[in-house]
Amino acid sequence: MKKLGLLVLVAGIILMAGCAGDDPSGPTGDLPNVSNVAIGSASAGKTVVLTWDAITGTDIDGYKVYFKTDGEGTGNEIADVTTNTYTHDASSAGTYVVKAYKGDNYSAGDSNVATTMPYFINADYTIWNNHAPDTTHSGIQFGSTAATTGSATGTFDQDLYCYNGGDNCYTWMYSGDYGTFGNGSHTDMYNRANASYAYPDDSYAWNNGKIEVVGDVFFAKLSNGYYIKIYIKALPHFPGGSDNAWGITLYYDYQPIQGLYLFSTDSN
After folding, report:
1. Where are the alpha helices (DSSP H) in the chain?
2. Is residue 235 within 8 Å of 247, Cβ to Cβ?
3. C or N: which end of the chain has fewer Cβ atoms within 10 Å?
């Protein structure tokens, strides 16, 4: 139910994009609305570079930038600038609008909405370790709208795969190009940086690690430069399999802006 609600949120954000005057942030007035607010190509990591069209033909003092954490609630003013760009060191994904102002007079409505919200993939995927039957899927490819599973022992180009890495833990996650079945794509994995899980700790990447806790969250950088946020939903035993046949059930969020690793503050 929670993930379905998140999908509704994303759909709402998409509908808002390009519509000025909806759910106005801050004061209003009769100045022109700001247009073409966008996430600039220089955005990377958790640094968001915003740009928009300058107001011309009307005397203004500057622009106010408003941000909604997770795209929810009331927009909070985060900047007062005189140019048509602003760089935000963000702590989570969210949505932005911009207003022009002159003294106490403001744009009549909000600009279009620019968003860094990830795509919430409303599906569960299970991959199995090397002790499960050969017909099971051990590898996974992550897409922007869905994932695909396949056998890491064959020609499947996996981003990650499940393997029995030893140390009394049967559910390890391996980069697609690492270890015994490393014929796939390279994927860096990262621990969460803080309690909000808003972005990964990029000081250290790992290419294999134990997955032991249901409800855990970690991040991955795919070989195409896009980041995902992975949620561990279950660690099932393969029905009728050997004592060592275990799997990982997961779902994920996909950040559609290449190189940006901002996600929602929701950890479940």
Report:
1. 2-16
2. yes
3. N
Integer Cα distance of 127 and 150 in angstroms: 8
Distances (CA, A) of 64 to 27, 84, 126, 199: 10, 10, 46, 26
Distances from the Cα of 228 to the Cαs of 98, 252, 268, in angstroms? 28, 7, 14
Residue where the block lists tokens 């509704």:
8
- Pick from 108, 94, 89, 85: nearest CA to 38: 85
CA 234-239-245 angle, to 5 degrees, is 70
What pairing do the DSSP bridges indicate for beta strands 139-142 and 160-163?
A: antiparallel
Q: Which domains does the chain have, with CATH numbers?
A: 2-117 (2.60.40.10), 120-254 (no CATH)
d(CA 104, CA 262): 33
pLDDT tens readout for residues 44-60: 999 999 999 999 999 99
pLDDT in tens, 57-80: 999 999 999 999 999 888 899 999
At residue 18, the pLDDT reads: 41
For 103-124, the three-class secondary structure string (H helix, E strand, C coil) is CCEEECCCCCCEECCCEECCCC
Cα atoms in the Cβ-side hemisphere of radius 13 Å centred on 148: 9
In angstroms, rounded to a whole number, what is the distance separating the alpha carbons of residues 62 and 254? 34
